[in-house]
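A favour, since you know our structure tokens better than I do. Just paste the record in under my message, thanks.
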Amino acid sequence: MNEEFESASNSPANVTPNISNPGTPRSDAGVEMRNTPPPPPQPRPVSTLTQHQQQQQQLLAQHQQQLQHLQSQSKYTQLLAMIEDMGRDIRPTYAGSRTSAERLKRGIVHARILVRECLMECEKSARS
């Protein structure tokens, strides 16, 4: 009986070929599996942190230059320059820019201080 089973299992009708599709990996140990190699590592862009730090340093340098220039001007001229700078942040603030909104808030606080200082200068000049 075993002979009949062995002969029946070796018949061409019952044997499936080892590789029906050579591109499809099989779990058979005798068949070599081909895997797609991983993509080569792509070079990483320059860190955004360093770019962000560079931008902050540039803005700080510009701000320091503006402060030095503004300190030599009258309070009224400083106020006019501050209002002009604040005008540049209005549209981006409406568009949803958080940084522009923060700059605008700081500008408003600074402008209020300048208005008080301008009023004090006017009062001093009116007394003399």
